[in-house]
Amino acid sequence: MKTVAVCSGKGGVGKSALACSLATIIAKDEKKVLLFDANLALPNCDMYFGLELGCTIGHVVRDHRELRDAVMTTASGVDLISGGSGWKELALMSEQEVESLIQQVIEFGKSYDYVIFDCAPGLGSRVYPFLQQSDSCLLVTTGDATSLMDSYALLKSAWELKPTLHAGLVVNHVANAVQGRQLAKEVQTIVGQFLSRELDFWGSVRHDVTVAKCCAERKAFAESNPLCHASQDLVDTANAVMGEAVSETIELSMLDRLKNRFSKSAEPEEETAAA
Ligand SMILES: Nc1ncnc2c1ncn2[C@@H]1O[C@H](COP(=O)(O)OP(=O)(O)O)[C@@H](O)[C@H]1O
Ligand SMILES: [Mg+2]
Questions:
Q1: Among the atoms of ligand 1, which is closest to the Cα of residue 212?
Q2: Atom 26 of ligand 1 has which residue's CA nearest to it?
């Protein structure tokens, strides 16, 4: 079982939308996936799957219900455990209480291939325990300068907490793959220089109106629109989470095309000269 914490420095960068669709793509690959909405008192994943909340983590914590009672299975086969929306009992949990809850979830999650934590934004006692218990951190950023800077700060802190944590960066809301790779390189360079560590690139996801439309319709975009730009892009990320290096084909072929184009315009003269 692999545990992945989906994190970000800033809120609203697309963690929940990507986490739900990522879980869907991985589940389609015949893997058993448990998605845990780690935004305990302000969950959103249920909405992205169009589910109505019944038994939640709120009931597990307050009423000592079993974790298995809180599992909701989505149409794509992902098992989701959600927090309780607006539950004071969850909002006020201490770090130790969160830690012991996570222990229960990890124990329960042993029958799954992947346990994905969709974390709250930023740092602090609501995020650290999830990072501590995760094998890897999928760090979501946008190209916004503040989001890039906060991603660096989150990583710095996460590695102080858990030096063995594997981290992969996903750049959301990009115009194209080349822009995504460039933005990731900026963060990777800073991380290399100041933290002397390597940050993996786990792909970029284009800004895609289908994502917002699916969100409004309470659907995971990769499920209802597997061919939209964002779904296609997220397949690379899913492969990276499952241990495969992100393919550079798209942008290399784009770079190759550009190179070809420029070299072709120079070719006739060279050919003529050679002839
Ligand atoms: N690639 C994208 N293209 C267009 N809209 C997106 C994209 N990613 C996320 N969104 C939208 O951004 C909003 C915030 O996303 P959400 O996943 O809830 O953020 P977070 O969990 O980081 O707070 C949602 O309305 C979502 O549909
Ligand atoms: Mg969220």
A1: 27
A2: 212
Q: Measuring from each residue's beta carbon to the nearest atom of ligand 1, which residues come in under 6 Å? A: 8, 11-17, 44, 172-173, 205, 207-208, 211-212, 215, 230
2-244: CATH topology is Rossmann fold (3.40.50)
Classify residue 182 by burial, with Cβ atoms within 10 Å: 0-12, 13-18, 19+: middle
Pocket test for ligand 1, best of 6, 7, 10, 16 (most atoms within 8 A of CB): 16
Confidence of residue 247 (pLDDT cuts 50, 70, 90): low
φ and ψ of 122, to 5 deg: 80, -160
pTM of the model: 0.90
Q: Domain ranges in the chain? A: 2-244, 248-275
Beta strands, E only, the chain: 2-7, 33-37, 71-73, 79-81, 114-118, 136-141, 166-174, 200-206
The pLDDT of residue 96 is above 60: yes
pLDDT attached to residue 166: 96
- Give yes or no for residue 258 having a pLDDT over 70: no
76: Cα within 13 Å, side-chain hemisphere? 28
Per-residue pLDDT tens over the stretch 227-237: 999 999 999 99
Q: Are strands 79-81 and 71-73 parallel, antiparallel or unpaired?
A: antiparallel
Confidence of residue 244 (pLDDT cuts 50, 70, 90): confident
Q: Give 44 Cα–ligand 2 centroid separation in angstroms.
A: 6
Closest CA to 204 of 228, 173, 226, 225: 173
